[in-house]
Amino acid sequence: MFSVKKMAGVAAIAAAGLVLAACSGPSADNSTSSSSTAAAAPSTGGPFKVAVVTHGTSGDAFWNVVKNGAEQAGKDLNIGVDYFADGDPGNQARLIDNAVAQKVGGLVVSMANPQALQTSIQNAVKAGIPVVTINSGEDSSAAFGAIAHVGQSEGLAGQGAGQRLKAAGKTKLLCVIHEAGNIGQNQRCDGAKQTFGNVSTLQVDISNPTDAQARIRGALQSDPSIDAVLALNSQVAARAVDAAKEASSKAQVATFDLNADVVAAIKAGTILFAVDQQQYEQGYLPIVFLKLYKENGNTIGGGKPVQTGPGFVDKTNIDTVAPYAQRGTR
Known about the structure:
Mean pLDDT: 88
Keywords: Signal
CATH class of the largest domain: Alpha Beta
Signal peptide: 1-21
GO molecular function: carbohydrate binding
Domain Periplasmic binding protein: 50-291
CATH topology of the largest domain: Rossmann fold
InterPro entries: Bact_Solute-Bind_Prot2, Peripla_BP_I, SBP_2_dom
């Protein structure tokens, strides 16, 4: 039974989510897509079951932290949590369909490609399964019938990154997009353009990190006036740092999201800052919200997203954040 005392604690957590300042975990060497037929992580908790279906990939440092948050919330709240990840939108839709067929009590879904998931999510809603969207697809969340969206408004985060780079005296920015079809990445670069001004974009493939590094190096060599690189992923950031060294470029690197390499690079001064969307909360908070919705009819956000970012990690606060990144919660 969910006691009054525990309900008050959960409500406090949910309230805290509304006032969050609007990335992180063990580093990974690659990010190959997992198969939609792969088994979920072991279910945790009690009879209320939630399926978490993300566009992350197996072993990815960022999504490991989301998974950690969701599973910890399941343990804390006695909720069964099954975590699935697949970078292919079609496979992700099938994972959602499978969860609906199994009549889960709630769904948590990231929407890097909202249109590919629309039918599956709307079918879940029609089946009476509450859905919370996370991380990507904020603009489509309410339209698809989700009860809440938890994440970072990517355009605003890009604006913040652009402002910081401009304040650092940078004049020409290369924004590196590493995942074709992910609307959030384009929104980040577009946001940076709004506040920074002189921004060009470069498309690379995160699944081929050697080629990504070569492409960044080539861009810096062909345009020596580029003095800043904005990576949209912690693994790409490490490649960008190496590319700048190889190109003998003066460009400094900033990035979205944290991992162990980014923490070390911020301490060493080779990365200026990381935009931190606190993805542990993107895993944890939706489980809280689904619990409150099921047991108390609560909704959150008033139709607006619950913001987990952007926060910024630089030399001024890296020593505080580093231990949390080490344990897989930032």
